[in-house]
Each structure stands twice: as C-alpha cells, then as structure tokens.
Design a protein that fits this description.
By secondary structure, the chain is α+β, with helices and mostly antiparallel strands. It has helices at residues 4-18, 83-106; strands at 23-24, 41-52, 61-75, 120-125, 132-135, 142-157. The longest helix has 24 residues, at 83-106.
Length: 163
C-alpha cells in the first residue's frame, strides 16, 4: 500500500540523488520569487492536481492519481546577443531533464512492482512545454526552466465508517 507521503519522498529522493548539484527551490509555485534561483542549477517539486480514479476495487481500497510538477532550472549567464553561452545553458538544462527522466522511468519504487494489485499502479513522466525564460523579481537576471508533469496512480486504504 502506498501513501501520498511515501510517493512524495520517493520522487524527492530520485531528484536529489540524480541532480546532486541542484539546490531546492523553496517555493515551486512562484518561481520568480525564489532567491535560490541565483544558484547555477535548482529544482522544485510542486504538488498538482489529483483525482480518485477507483474502479470496482475491493472494500476499503481506493485508487488515486496525483500529479507533481517538477521544475528544473539553470541560471542564464548570457548577456544579450551571447548565443554561445545561451546554447550551452539550454543544452545543460535538457541534459538535466534527460538524467531525471531516465532515473524516474528506471526506478523500481515508482513502477508497478507489486503482485497483489496494491501500491503504485502506474507512473508517467510526461511531456514538457519546452524551455521557458523566467525573469526574477528585483533583478535583471533570469533563469531557464523546464517543467514536467509526473503522474502517479496508486492504491490506498481508506477507513470505512461503522465497520
């Protein structure tokens, strides 16, 4: 049986062990407000939408789906017109994403590794909208960001009232 907290901890562990040079963003919901973005590389995990997707499960069991938005950032060092530095930063950001995608899709903790139909049912490391530029508040600097949706479908126990 998987709990949301256990799943979150697994996701965070994969990110931190894969991207060891990245600093955690304190507020992954408003990227432009983070001082951590002054670091060369950072990550943030935002909890996004969830749903009850139960279909004829046995009593006391529900199936839930939760999305995480994983932000990967790289500081933009390039001055206006410096395409060589900008390209290098863009490539490094996509390499970060590739490492994380490989680590998530290969991690047995996020795969349907149970035989009794309990725990994590499905994991999808989804597409992203591409690299985006975010201007930082009170600064002339900016960051490049890739934000990807990770969807986890899992089975959980619920307490039945009156039982």
């Amino acid at each position: 049986m998987a709990t949301f907290s256990e799943i979150y901890d697994v996701v965070e562990s994969i990110v931190t062990t894969t991207l060891t040079s990245h600093i955690e963003i304190k507020n992954p919901y408003k990227l432009e407000q983070n001082a951590e973005l002054s670091f060369n590389a950072a990550y943030g995990i935002a909890i996004s939408s969830g749903d009850d997707v139960s279909e004829n499960l046995r009593s006391g069991q529900v199936q839930r789906q939760r999305e995480f938005i994983i932000h990967l950032t790289r500081r933009k060092f390039a001055t206006s017109g410096d395409r060589a530095t900008m390209k290098s930063t863009e490539k490094a950001l996509v390499e970060d994403w590739t490492l994380l995608a490989d680590a998530i899709t290969a991690n047995p903790s996020l795969l349907n590794a149970t035989t009794d139909n309990t725990g994590i049912q499905d994991t999808t490391f989804g597409s992203d909208p591409g690299i985006e530029f975010v201007s930082l508040e009170k600064s002339r600097d900016g960051i490049l960001v890739i934000s990807t949706v990770l969807t986890v479908k899992y089975e959980a126990s619920v307490s039945l009232l009156g039982c």
